[in-house]
Design brief:
The chain is an alpha+beta fold and 628 residues long. Helix content is 18%, strand content 33%. It has an 8-stranded mixed β-sheet, sandwiched between helices. The chain has a 4-stranded antiparallel β-sheet with strand order 1-2-3-4, with no helix packed on it. A hairpin with a 7-residue loop joins β3 and β4. The protein is globular and about 65 Å long.
């Protein structure tokens, strides 16, 4: 037995040949992301002709990650920031005028767009929340896509975290109280006062309530609620009475909330293109499950799911619900995209993410459940390299970010690179991970560098005890919170790990919380302050510092690689600088890579290639795996 041929880093992390497809409202064209000058840009392809696809954006500086159709299929919009600074701007593309440049519809330096949404009752209009007036407050604007006119609908009184606009003048606000309560209010247009409709306890919603969307008639909102239950289900809140009624519930699974943290993931609510009626709800266990609430969509979904043994990811249809474009999540065959016609039942595979990836050479991602030392069950994933006996392998523990996100089944380039090199890969949904019930998440309160880390160590012991892993060749690898967990690993349990790779990781919890953007700080009461402590309280700040790796630098003896984006506004560069400087002051050699044109999420392919090649060589040196 032998490992398959070594696959290059470039094949895994270069821009996909095609990805992110969606169909136009009139069903005549498909948009997707594909490379142009080594950056993913938006391309357009006609469905009913043999015309060659054409690139309609021209960003050679940074990969385009988010785009959407407007009501008028003549226009596309996309969002872009500058070097990863997360100051998102909205750009318009005129598809009928190939010579026209993209138009920046929000040309305010240093400002950030959030909540860019179509207004159901006002075709051609979008709402967006913009902090151009003051960085800490987002005002609600209406944008006319054709003219570019931007009209302020309401100025933030200072305590509103989000707005909803019914399109008929009615405005609704979401806010967080000092105690962490989440409040839904109605704006009185005459007085400017906010009148409470319903209040939610914030303890069950560390990263806000998701989803939170107006019903088609704007008489209510559909939300993801775990009030009175351990699981998150979909309920409707009446905007006049505040009354709550159940819409959809799964007997064992939570609503899939990944879109809340990563906007490029499909949203939890599947809605009709033309009417915006609710069609289905995504839930997530070891794999995604879609429950339908519309009979016609149930028929569509049945036919779509026969096209792949993966799960439905990206999904769009024309306004009539006749033509559908669907992309599938799969652990070994990523991004397979189909065109399906419900009127004829015909289906055509459009493309795969990459023709360089042979599914037979990819390693299956196996769901496993690990029991922590205190009895808590940890839903996890084990990926074993193919072609060799799964015994005594070098192991890489890959830790997800958040921590209020989760690992899920699907293709992960990091995991597949490692498996191709001969490593077993273990991903653990430790306590605090979202999507496994409120109790599993809240078990992390006060447990940073405590039981949250014990869960990771218990998972390593599980893999060693079952013979998969060699205890002397275990590495830890993670970004963001996963970077913090990596640094905790090499400071609190230095004997466990033979190597460590962390990127954009937190080294000082107090500095991290204090250096976040001002507009993000009001929401900290239900997550970082609740789970770690308020840095403005001396006792809580002292406890947070004691749980910070920067306080325990003298314990590090594990070979360490650190990677940072210079423009990161979430985990600022000082978090990495201070850790690296402290190690070098002790005479400890540490590999340190800084990308000047990246932020918290690395996007440019040459940087991803540089990072993964460096990690590849680093892990091979210290764990003995293959290197490209």
């Amino acid at each position: 037995m032998a490992l398959p041929e070594l696959i290059s880093i470039e094949q895994f992390v270069s821009p996909p040949e095609r990805t992110g497809a969606s169909i136009s409202p009139d069903g005549t064209r498909i948009a997707y992301l594909a490379p142009w000058r080594n950056r993913s840009n938006v391309w357009i392809q006609n469905i009913d002709s043999d015309d060659e696809p054409r690139c309609v954006t021209a960003d050679d500086t940074r990969t385009v990650q988010r785009y959407s159709w407007t009501d008028d299929p003549r226009y596309l919009v996309y969002q872009q920031d500058d070097g990863g600074d997360e100051n998102w701007h909205v750009f318009r593309i005129d598809l009928d005028d190939p010579s026209a440049d993209a138009v920046n519809l929000t040309p305010y330096p240093g400002a950030m767009v959030m909540g860019f949404e179509k207004v159901n009752a006002r075709p051609g209009k979008f709402t967006l929340q913009l902090n151009a007036r003051t960085p800490s407050e987002f005002d609600l604007h209406e944008l006319d896509i054709v003219t570019g006119e931007l009209t302020m609908l309401v100025q933030n009184p200072g305590n509103v975290s989000g707005w909803l606009y019914a399109g008929d003048g009615r405005l609704f606000a979401r806010s967080v109280t000092d105690r962490g309560e989440l409040v839904l209010s109605r704006l009185d247009n005459e007085t400017g006062e906010l009148h409470t409709i319903r209040t939610f306890g914030g303890e069950g919603y560390p990263i806000d309530i998701y989803p939170f969307e107006l019903t088609p008639d704007a008489s209510g909102v559909w939300i993801g609620s775990n009030d009175g239950t351990d699981r998150t289900r979909i309920v409707r809140i009446d905007l006049e009475t505040g009354e709550q009624s159940e819409v959809d519930d799964h007997p064992t699974l939570d609503v899939d909330t990944r879109h809340a943290a990563f906007p490029t993931w499909p949203p939890a609510l599947i809605r009709a293109r033309g009417t915006t009626q609710l069609l289905g709800v995504r839930y997530l266990g070891h794999k995604q499950v879609i429950q339908t609430v519309d009979d016609q969509f149930a028929d569509v979904l049945t036919n779509l799911e026969e096209l792949s043994d993966g799960t439905v990811a990206g999904l769009s249809s024309d306004c009539e619900g006749r033509r559908w474009v669907v992309t599938f999540t799969h652990d070994r065959d990523p991004g397979v995209t189909w065109l399906y016609d419900h009127s004829t039942g015909s289906a055509e595979m459009l493309f795969r993410r990459s023709t360089d990836i042979d599914p037979d050479d990819m390693a299956p991602m196996l769901p496993v459940t690990i029991t922590a030392r205190d009895g808590l069950e940890l839903p996890s994933y084990l990926t074993l390299p193919i072609g060799i006996e799964p015994t005594g392998l070098p192991l890489v523990l890959v830790v997800h970010g958040g921590p209020w996100t989760r690992d899920a089944w699907g293709f992960d380039p990091t995991v597949q690179v490692l498996a191709n090199r001969g490593y077993a890969v273990l991903q653990v949904n430790f306590r605090g991970s979202a999507g496994f019930g409120k109790a599993h998440m809240r078990a992390a309160i006060g447990e940073f560098a405590g039981k949250m880390h014990d869960d990771l160590i218990d998972a390593v012991d599980w893999a060693v005890d079952r013979g998969y892993a060699d205890a002397g060749r275990v590495a830890i690898f993670g970004g963001s919170y996963g970077g913090y967990a990596t640094l905790v690993g090499v400071t609190f349990t230095p004997d466990t790990f033979a190597a460590a790779v962390e990127y954009v990781g937190i080294s000082d919890l107090t500095n991290f919380m204090q250096s976040l953007p001002e507009h993000a700080k009001p929401s900290l009461v239900n997550n970082w302050y609740s789970y770690v402590g308020d840095p403005n309280d001396p006792d809580q700040a002292a406890d947070a510092l004691a749980r910070s790796p920067i306080t325990h630098v003298d314990k590090i003896r594990t070979p360490l690689m650190v990677v940072q984006g210079a423009n990161d506004v979430r985990v600022v560069k000082a978090e990495s600088d201070n850790m690296v400087d402290a190690l070098r002051a002790r005479g400890v050699d540490v590999d340190y890579i800084v990308f000047e044109d990246e932020g918290h999420i690395f996007a440019n392919p040459e940087n991803l290639i540089t990072m993964f090649k460096a990690a590849d060589a680093f892990l091979a040196e210290h764990l003995g795996g293959r290197s490209g």
